[in-house]
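user: Please review this fold.
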Amino acid sequence: MEEGSSGLLAAVNAPDSEIVDTPESEIIDRPVSPAGRGRRKKRPTWKILEQLLQPCAPVEIDQLDPPPPDALPSPQASVLWKTVRTVANVFGLSREYRTVPSSNPEETVSLEDLSNIPGDRTSSPPSTSPPAESEVSAGAPPQFAPFSNMSVWRLMSWMWGGSHTKSVAELDRLVHDVILAPDFSKEDFQQFDAKRETAKLDESLQPSAGSSTYRDGWHETAVEIAVPDGKAHRTPDSPVPMFAVPGLHFRSIIEVIKAAWQDARSRRFHFVPFKEYWQHTSSRDLPQRVYHELYASDAFTKAHEELQEQLPEPDCNLERVICALMFWSDSTHLASFGNASLWPIYMFFGNQSKYDRAKPSSSACHHIAYIPKLPDSFFDYFLGLTGQGPSADMITHCRREIMHAVWRILLDDDFMHAYEHGMVITCSDGVMRRVFPRIFTYSADYPEKVLLANIRNLGDCPCPRCKIQKARIPEMGTKRDMARRTRDARVDSGPLRYDIARARELIYEDGRGVKSAAVEGLLRRESLVPTSNAFSEKLAPFGFNVFSMFVVDLLHEFELGVWKVVFTHLIRILHSCGGESIQSLNQRFRCVPTFGRSTIRRFSNNASAMKKLAARDFEDLLQCSIPVFEGLLPEPHNKNVGNLLFALAEWHASAKLRLHTESTLQQLESSTSYLGTQLHHFVNNTCPCFDTKELPREEAARARRKQRAAHSSVAATPAAPGGHKRKTLNLSTCKCHALGDYANQIRAFGTSDGISTQPGEFEHRRVKRFYARTNKNQATMQIARLQRREQALTAHMLPTPRSRKGRLASSQLVPDGREALPYMLPEHHHHISHSRNFPLYLPQFIRETEGDPVVYDFLPKLKNHLLERLKHPDLSVTGESFSLDKVSTLLIQSNRVFRHQTMRVNYTTYDVRREQDSMNPSNHADIMLLAPGAEEGVTGGLHPFEYARILGIFHADVILNVPGTLPKVTTVEFLFVRWFDLDHRGMGGFAKQRLHRLKWRPDVEGRAFSFVDPDEVIRGAHLIPAFALGEPENVMTGSEYYYVNMFVDRDMYMRYKGGGVGHVKINSEVIVEFDDTVEGLDGSGEGEMEEGGLEEPDCGESESGTSDSDSDASAEPGREEEGCGSDEEGMEGLAPL
């Protein structure tokens, strides 16, 4: 395999070579042996190589650049710009500010705050964060107000927070947070009455104009909309009919901002934007821009600079800062049955880290309004007004009017005054600032964006950001398409507003229909609608372009959009082929092993049925689809499908990265172009070769729609079954078109996870939980009240962090015999229990397994492994063979080793955070390690990683008898593994657009089985059986061939693709020379080193890779068990092969 030189990958689809970008480490220099013995090349263990995260240091000014002499401020400018650069950290990251920030919110960030490491499964996870943010001011004394004492406050907090159902976790919370609290006293409940205390809480939370606290509560009002009745209304005597839609529950945006910015959690808010740059410490390349958070984006920087250039308010010298508002809205069903629903508007602050915003437990989501729907009484009103029922176009028009009428109420005079003049807030750090709210993003699905952008749903120009014609959408990814997006971008201009105003005159004053020819002549060309946009009315005078706030949405546009459509059509193709292809597909998906903490979950149901699948389920299907679909179709369609699936998986992994550099964004742009090419090729060359019809569920859904239409018609006639209808793959959709906007949107607003609709979808769970606690009568009002109670009580929540001592308690066996998993500190590389509950007596083990090839030379190999580890504890094991004299100096205490069920490995992710993988011999047993010679593989063509399956996890107490020293007992951990080799007949990598294929290493002289230092494990690997090369014989032996799932999560993707900021860069500099002579061991009698790692490929390419862990905000607690392997350990302590 050919491989290029070290560095970042220049393009996604390199034609002949690939570059593996791996990290960099310190050079370990060892002195030359006085005896002049030959040197061997070794590298440090992965534990030493990997960079450990460091808490962010205070801003240290590295360079202050004065402006050039001619760059004098204009007369209207109020600030003299200077460039402040911070000192680069260990990862080569530095920041550039336009002015020295007044506060550094990351001064208090600890390593645990940068970790996604779970807590003990048998206890609640540790809490080291400050109290959850709330919109309620914390200045109301005493702490337990409005209750009479702390005991009542704790009990009421338990009552109105957490789950509404009884559970073990809720019982634990009651005991530990309430009953066992030191300030809890049963005497405080002598006159306790729950209803009275709840009423007291509700009364204290009512908004009051005369109160300085709790002014951000809920209000209720009706929304008035103008109703077209087809009549002329040109005089005051003939007003336009107005209909009042009841039931709008809303909160003042300004009061919510004030309360949140005074809350303790606003200490983590960023008030001053910055640009972040990354440069490898030894790289000669120029630093490249890093994109991640909104407050480090171009949009935030531009808004901040425009604000500083404005004239300050009279007699005000306060710091002027931006309050970045990010809105979400979407209607959601509140129950599985019935039509109960809620249409909430959520607000987040872009000043807050997206990692905090993504956690539902952080209370970072602020409920702003619950939009009322058009009531059934409107039909009666319209019938009395016009003598006929409203048409579908009329109902759609009125729904748009409701949405914008609600936003006119939210963008009230207080908001507009603050938008123009700012508002003075004493922030949680005690500093008074003048805060200016600015709207940056609005995340919603396509139907919601259509309502907000005032364009037609699936019109001729369906995109809310540009005016592309639907017929040109299939050109996605071409240069013409990318140029068209910029040239034809939508702009909230004067002529556009004039056309809409003129259309409304025709409807409301002249009595024309909403779809009349005169109205259509004004609006149809750009797919506009006759609704005045509330954002345009309020904010256009300040230069705000309403169309710029509609950001991309990976969840709806790709996972539930393009990929779902492609997957559905692939199922149609397999149905058209007949035979057992659909059954084979379902069986293969069921045999895909699980991975991580719900990163890949068990495909227990038939994947082809697609029953009740969420976005994360379709994401799992994509990440595992390449081996599953392989061989199900004849050539050349099998190859075409493989290329398409690889392009889809690579684009998805790249677009979903939580941290981008300019290089990875260029790769995303190349991936977009390549994906467009593959989609066109698939549609033009593969799809016409198959007679694809509706799936059974699609036909049933169409029949139900016909039946409903027949019942609603005047002359109801039974709908005759139409049979299977031919279906084709349609690429002319707005969701497909949106894929081309991701790179530019990431540059403007930060990475896609920060602007996705996923946080809003998670918040729907909260309102559904509230709904379950209501009596279903006026549920919206009760939901608002419950939200307010939880928010108020959370505001005063006392932090109860568990001490490190408690978290680090030694592992114990839980009653069912499983090893408990105590909290693991993020700075540790791995954790293996040192319990002695499962000893393995080596002499007996050797006798019982005599003749078993798995344990061939088990004890000699173990002693050689341990001896080399003791000689060079910080260097990698190369498989040295020592003489019998040297081996005899090593004693295993009591001839016993102790086996364990689980090993957990912490690793630094590409986005500079700490994550964790858990492995055990029964489930998630596959691991990846740095291949011997990989540091030379940058130029030598070697695959950078090697792979093994854990058969046993052990520790032992060993003694090294060195003459002249006292014997010392050392506890050594080790793994017993079976090795994989690369299968060079199945070339993989990004240039080949295929996954790397592995095979079991031939068992020649026991090379297939050996021992591994846990310090060498990088992280877990996800290996999927190569189903096309033969189905697994049974769950015990598994498959002969496996594919390396490079796309299992985003971190894995970046390990193969290269360019991960937090990843180690391996090159020849990490090779160290060491002397074989160590104190007490002269090295005499050593044999040749055994070959370790993978065979050198005959011809090769550089690898690339996968995606990063999505157990993020979408991962659910718990772990699925891997099914293609036994859950029971062997009687000798080894997992079955």
